[in-house]
Amino acid sequence: MNYLTDKLLSIQDLQTCFFTSSGVVKAVDHVSLDIARGETLGIVGESGSGKTTVALSIMRLVPSPPGKIVGGRIDLAGYGNLVELDETELRKIRGSVIAMSFQDPMTYLNPVLTVGRQVVEAILLHNDMTRSDATARAIQIMRRVGIGSPEIRAREYPHQMSGGMRQRILLAMAISCQPRLLIADEPTTALDVITQAGILRLLKNLKEELGISLLIVSHDLGVVANLCDRIGIMYAGRMMEIGNTAEIFERSRHPYTRALLESIPRVDVGKKRLAVIDGAIPRLTDLPNGCVFNPRCTFAQPECKVTNPPLEIAAEDHKTACLLWKQIYSKEEIHLDR
């Protein structure tokens, strides 16, 4: 399936900065990507890569001050450029057209309100209905996201629930108005592997049942491997590589992506020392010249310290931002030892 033909959301040259006493933090630096109708796109990267800031920029929830979108476009089908909309117009879109499930449920759930009431308020915000009807709908949605005995659990407070249940409440609030795009920011962070698997199955089922698009933000390639149609790899605020999931895993063209894949623990290769990416992610107030990954790249050449590579088509539905990918690809076997 070609996910570039029916765009729901199109981001072009997005730039989001934070103006701090230590300097200008280029959290999102000229990022471009598209999300099609019915697609699941994953954005992956180390902490501080800018992936969550991309999600917050789409929602126009970047804290200001110190943050600000300083350039680029975020075009939503039927609504135009979200960057140009005022707060009144954005309130009509948030929750009803684009919804977001945040990373830390205890931060975003109100500790003094029952979870049921919080789901009800999310419904009433975008729907003209009575509170009793909204309550009935909230119970139905809680049941849909896998919360057992929702009539009872709706009367509980966030601290009375497990991390997995709180994450499901956030998802219930996010889908309460049947958005066209659901953004899930680190939906499995701090959860045990069994609960993680349950949340991932839930996201997949919600996508199929509701016919929505998903944007999954994660630092874990394993999380997005079986869930996403396409994957974007971010590093230091920039998009390093983006393409079909199978293509990224089997024929990655960027040294950073390959290094990430080679550092994943696996049970099918015996005792093998995991690869390590030397160095550390650069300070976003003092980015290196040229390719931002060049100080840590084993393939770096002098030109990599001068030229900032743009995303270049490497294959169908596959782009990479590396000056040397053709030379690397011609000299080495791209298929990783899977």
Which properties best describe this structure?
338 residues; alpha/beta; eight-stranded mixed β-sheet; four-stranded antiparallel β-sheet; 32% helix; disordered C terminus
Describe the protein in words.
- The chain is of the alpha/beta class and 338 residues long.
- Among the domains are: 109-178, no CATH class; 252-331, no CATH class.
- The protein has helices at residues 51-59, 87-93, 105-108, 115-126, 131-144, 150-153, 163-175, 193-210, 221-225, 245-250, 255-262, 325-331, and strands at 7-20, 23-36, 40-44, 67-76, 80-81, 98-101, 181-185, 213-218, 230-235, 238-244, 312-315, 318-320.
- Strands 6-7-8-3-9-10-12-11 form an 8-stranded mixed beta sheet, sandwiched between helices.
- Strand 4 and strand 5 (80-81) form a beta hairpin.
- Residues 333-338 have low confidence and may be disordered.
Write a compact overview of the structure shown:
It contains twelve helices and twelve strands. With 338 residues, the protein is an alpha/beta fold. Among the domains are: 70 residues, no CATH class; 80 residues, no CATH class.
Total beta strand runs? 12
Overall mean confidence score, pLDDT: 89
- The radius of gyration over CA amounts to 21 Å
Q: Gap between N and C termini, in Å?
A: 25 Å
Note poorly predicted spans: 333-338
Shape: globular
N-to-C order of helices and strands = EEEHEEHEHHHHHEHEHEEHHEEH
Instruction: State the helix count.
Output: 12
Major β-sheet strand ordering:
6-7-8-3-9-10-12-11
Structural class: alpha/beta
Helix content: 25-40%
